[in-house]
Amino acid sequence: MATQTFTREQVSKNNNADSLHVIIDSKVYDLTDFADAHPGGVHVLLQVAGQDATSEFYSMHRHEILTKYSSMVTGTIQGETPQVIEPKAGDLCLIPYTEPMWLSPEFKSPYYDESHRRLQKEVRVFVDEFVRPEALRIEEAGERPSAEIIKRMADNGINAMRLGPGKHLDGYNLIGGIEPKKFNYFHELVLNQELVRTHGRACNDGFLGGMVIGLPPVLNFSRNAALRDRVMRECFSGEKSICLAVSEAFAGSDVAAIRTTAAKSADGTHYIVNGTKKWITNGSWADYFTTAVKTDKGYSVLLVERGEGVETEQIKTSYSSAAGTAFITFDNVKVPVENLLGKEHQGFPVIMSNFNHERWVMACASIRASRVVVEECLKWANQRKVFGKRLVDQPVIRGKLAKMISLVESGQSWLEAITYQMCNMTYQQQAKSLAGPIALLKNFITRAAHEIADESVQVFGGRGITKSGMGRVIENFHRTYKFDAVLGGSEEILGDLAVRQAFKNFPKSML
């Protein structure tokens, strides 16, 4: 970067196409050679040539653009210093309500200790430096995450940590220096909420979203220790990937309606699997499929390995192909009986026990993504001027911001209250007592996302429906927030589940 200094009078003389300089936050940019390549044309730049264009720039562009074109800085204004803080990897946002309350120095929390703060710091640096750049690349290109980023995550123990506390963490060096035996659900909550700050919904699923929901049944229900350990090792390392294959064209939230079948071979050594699965996250490239099937006396769950008779086809959805969403066909696939998860004909407990953690993870991610949207709206309302005033000076905009903030803070508080219960319950107790509360939590958070998505677009206007530029985070969220409202059990199903469970435990003495 050049160190030459200018006076504002000197800059003002460079006001034509042959010598075009502008001032942005006390830095002088030479745009002469760039003018013809400017997306808005040279005439837009000539309107501010030789002038301070700070206000105009920040009303049209994100700050990151300045980093991209830092080579065009030719000097600085004499006696002036930049007023806009250049964010560094790992930095917290200082704007109120843009971070969970426990991360603000003036507030206290009974849930988090120094290990959680250390983990948050290190994961945020990791996301800022490695995950978000990769996420933005694959979100746009629709590509699978690179093997390099998955290995980086594996080397930091992140892949194993995403399955929560347990013996599967033993032997791994965990980011943040967390001892495996002391890792709890609040550590996992912190990890989930930091990983989702990528500004891309599909890539969040692309980063082993299928493993988060597909591997737990193998760890918890496989009776073949050698198979379990091999699959766990391969998936945590990124050598292979796994997905959960339950949904079908015939059966979404209605799991009992699945039609994929598994019949024992004549010699009893294999199941022969036939059928299809649809909307399977990471299915396009998965090596293992944790698959719900109909057997002759009920439902079972099998671990199917990619091989002869297994075909996958990418499905185009409203978010990026970076998630690897797939339609899967099983055509006379031979699956060893040792790959049965749980007991034969008793697969529902295997499937249902997995839902609590899946829905809790989705709640963690959805409420943090909503907070990112709130951050974008707060920044935009402060810098955008309409009718001679900042947006935030308009009472109607302040009302929208208040609504969004209230929804995010409420969701986070409820999430933390349930997470505390998870930390003090066994896996079996969670399945019995938390299915209803977690279902309602996810229902509330995805309803909140609906409101936040709607209000944020109104705050951003046309930019909120534009895939690039200032509103791209808003556009992505508005286009994709519904995935959380449908996947893992739709809002309606979860609300009904919670109320039915409440009445199941209704005291007979109460009329």
TrEMBL record:
It comes from the Eukaryota. One of its GO terms (biological process) is fatty acid beta-oxidation using acyl-CoA dehydrogenase. Residues 3-78 form the Cytochrome b5 heme-binding domain. Keywords: FAD, Flavoprotein, Oxidoreductase. One of its GO terms (cellular component) is cytoplasm. Its cofactor is FAD. Belongs to the acyl-CoA dehydrogenase family. This is Acyl-CoA dehydrogenase NM domain-like protein.
